[in-house]
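Reading a protein record of the kind used here takes little practice once its layout is understood. Each number in the token line that follows is a code from a learned vocabulary of backbone shapes. One such record is shown here in full, so that the layout can be seen directly:
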Amino acid sequence: MSDTAIARFDADAAARGLDVEVVERPAADSLEQAAALLEITPGDIVKTLVVKRHDGGFLLALVPGGRSIAWKKLRTVVGVNKLSMPDAATALEASGYERGTITPIGATGDLPVYADERVLGRRVALGAGRHGASAFVDADALVAAYGATVADITDEEPVRQG
């Protein structure tokens, strides 16, 4: 993570009036381990995913931990027939952040944000634009700051048998 990206993150949060707490943390091997390290529930961790539109544009989807994008629901909300996940290099080019660090805060490209309705009403942890850190923010303030479209865009991930 470059100093430029950190400065971009900090400047965007300040410009939007977002109260963000960036917390350094060790790497985690699972959602549950990450939640335990941050002393929050898995659903309070929000993944920011870069999604490619059929027309070549991109959007950001905010997905709570333990859930995954419901492609049919998201396509309906966006109003398109085709969406896909780009490769890591394309996601970096579109957002300015590497996978695992992606956040709307300071993302390049002025990408529209779509938030799953389950993120509302809570303080969430999301990517901080750098490895080894999480950004805590009020989800309602985040949604308002980015004019995010809020809808049911996810499904519960199946329980893994281990």
Remarks:
- The helical segments are 3-15, 31-38, 71-78, 88-95, 139-146.
- The CA atoms of residues 44 and 70 lie 19 Å apart.
- The chain has five helices and ten strands.
